[in-house]
Specification:
By secondary structure, the chain is α+β, with helices and mostly antiparallel strands. The protein has six helices and 13 strands.
């Protein structure tokens, strides 16, 4: 099973708070080569991708999703996995901040991620199936609500990758674009009550190689581009071991160093700590 986007996006909630916190509390400093790939909050496929629809016979969204599930190892293989432990490293490239993370996730929709960043400390994000919460030394401790809670529910579904058609009310194939050196089918996905997302599936492997979305955070909505790389086999299922995420303020790089499926984990693991 591929490590779900929930892990990455949860980290992004944390990183977003860190960046805004530093902007508010630290002295200004120059950040070289500030990423400028994302410029608007409304994520749409390019005109080139849309134009491709008229020139090439494209597969349907259900066909693309079916190929994606098979590329991940198949639904049966993925559904045999009931829990997962992941750890690895994180880097905020423009800021020179590095750290480590570890995540526990369990079906149907529970997850907790602990991130330790050099010079900042430990940040924790969790979802117990009902409540999404955050413990952050910079932005404080809080529960999530509104769109932020809705987004947490969307990304924390343990079997998200094999049931995308159920999580998005509308999915449309818009064309083909290059992602790196490879062609990818461009699919827009509309979640209920949340901003439009755009998913890019490699035309050959069928794997998800890029995702454009809008991150909901206490500081507002931010556009993000996520690139998934270095897929490997873990217990018969495909897992990406590296991801690169472009936000307006920074580039986040995550690298998995260990992935274990069907680990023993109790529900209490995901409970919000008492304060």
């Amino acid at each position: 099973m591929k490590i779900k986007a929930s892990i990455l996006l949860t980290t992004l909630f944390t990183m977003s708070a860190i960046v805004f916190g530093q902007e508010k509390t630290a002295a200004p400093k120059t950040v070289p080569n500030k990423p400028a790939e994302v410029k608007t909050l409304e994520i749409k496929p390019s005109a080139a991708a849309t134009a491709t629809t008229a020139a090439v016979k494209l597969p349907t969204a259900p066909e693309i999703l079916a190929k994606y599930v098979q590329a991940l190892g198949g639904k049966a293989v993925n559904e045999k996995i009931k829990s997962r432990f992941t750890k690895g490293t994180v880097e905020l490239a423009p800021l020179g901040v590095k750290g480590t993370f570890e995540t526990y996730a369990a079906a149907p929709n529970k997850s907790i991620i602990r991130t330790n960043l050099d010079g900042i400390g430990e940040l924790i994000e969790g979802f117990d199936g009902v409540t999404a919460w955050s413990i952050n030394p910079l932005s404080g401790n809080r529960d999530k609500a509104g769109e932020e809670l809705a987004q947490a529910k969307l990304i924390y579904d343990f079997y998200r990758e094999t049931k995308l058609e159920k999580l998005y009310s509308k999915m449309e194939v818009k064309g083909i674009e290059k992602v790196g050196a490879s062609d990818a089918y461009v699919v827009t996905a509309t979640p209920d009550g949340l901003p439009l997302e755009t998913l890019y599936f490699d035309t050959i492997s069928g794997l998800l190689v890029r995702q454009d979305a809008t991150l909901v955070s206490p500081e507002g909505k931010q556009p993000v581009k996520v690139f998934y790389e270095d897929y490997r086999d873990v217990d018969g299922a495909k897992v990406f071991f590296k991801s690169r995420t472009i936000l307006p303020q920074l580039e986040l790089i995550t690298t998995n160093t260990e992935v274990k499926n069907n680990v023993a984990v109790e529900d209490a693991k995901f409970a919000k700590p008492k304060q």
